[in-house]
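Q: Here's a chain of 26 amino acids. Please give me its 3D structure as tokens.
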Amino acid sequence: MGFNCLINSLCKLCFAYASLSMNYKQ
């Protein structure tokens, strides 16, 4: 469960960063 939670939070962080990056480029 702990490992799965870590992967999930990492995915969310990556997605948030990508979204922020796209907004910054525009």
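Q: Can you summarize the key feature?
A: The longest helix spans residues 2-25.
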